[in-house]
Amino acid sequence: MVHVGLQRREEGIFKPLVKLTGNTADGICFDADCWQQFVDNMGLMKEYLNYDSKVKPNSIDIKNILINFTTSYGAKSILLAYKGDQEVHHSMGNSNGDLRREEKTLADSTPPAKKRRTYAVVIVMQETTFLGLQSVVKCINAHFKHLESLSDNVNKCAQYLIKEIELKLPVNYVNREIIRLMLKDNYDEIARDVRTQITDLIFLHLFDSYFNIIFLELITLRYNEILHLILSNREL
């Protein structure tokens, strides 16, 4: 699956990203630069998957992401993983490139005490999955570009929201439950106060629907990030 959205980065800044997921909620995340490099290399990936060539391209490094050309269950595949994950390096080390045999080897060689540890996030794409992703790249890029244009507005709106929440919190002690209850009891007032402060953000000021969408995004989908920032500020 492909997800395009905003994620809190360093110092509470929200940036757009593309996230590719497999059978679990965890996935591989691409910022703007990483995603562009991935798209630029899709021609090479398609060529490897489509043509009956015995030549296997070298792995592609994109910042903290490693793209490997391999096989899974007898079919050519593209494997994406974060660099530094030991399990991934083990699986890539098999010269035959057969993930099914690699997984069995790992399972047989792993001591019982270590079988419950968290394994690396790996995305494996065979030809059908890859072509499906390639067919929606233009849509992904358009959505990504739209989010880039909105990210500055979102970041400023988040700053105003945090400021308004902090003004209504008790001075002595704050925890997640106190913030949750305060936000629930003062939701409309906080939304109104934030709305009055965004006169410098013409795009949001002129279109209430966009403000409502972004405010709801911050309050619901980005709730944990907002709480983290507020509690971090209190610890300073």
List the helices and strands and how they pair.
Layout: E1 2-8, E2 14-21, E3 27-30, H1 32-40, H2 42-50, E4 60-62, E5 65-72, E6 75-82, H3 86-92, H4 99-109, E7 122-125, H5 127-135, H6 137-167, H7 176-185, H8 187-196, H9 202-206, H10 208-221, H11 223-235
Antiparallel strand pairs: 1-2, 2-3, 4-5, 5-6, 6-7
Helix pairs in contact: 2-5, 3-4, 6-8
How far from one another are the termini?
Answer: 39 Å
Number of E-state strands = 7
Helix tally equals 11
Whole-number mean pLDDT: 79
Structure description:
The chain is of the alpha+beta class. It has two domains: 2-86 and 120-143; 149-235, no CATH class. 54% of the residues lie in helices and 18% in strands. It has helices spanning 32-40, 42-50, 86-92, 99-109, 127-135, 137-167, 176-185, 187-196, 202-206, 208-221, 223-235, and strands at 2-8, 14-21, 27-30, 60-62, 65-72, 75-82, 122-125. Strands 4-5-6-7 form a four-stranded antiparallel β-sheet. Strands 1-2-3 form a three-stranded antiparallel β-sheet. Strand 5 (65-72) and strand 6 form a beta hairpin. Helix 2 packs antiparallel against helix 5. It starts with a strand and ends with a helix. Residues 91-110 are annotated as: Disordered.
Notable traits:
about 240 residues; alpha+beta; 2 domains; 4-stranded antiparallel sheet; 3-stranded antiparallel sheet; 11 helices; 7 strands
Overview in brief:
Residues 91-110 are annotated as: Disordered. With 236 residues, the chain is α+β, with helices and mostly antiparallel strands. Helix content is 54%, strand content 18%.
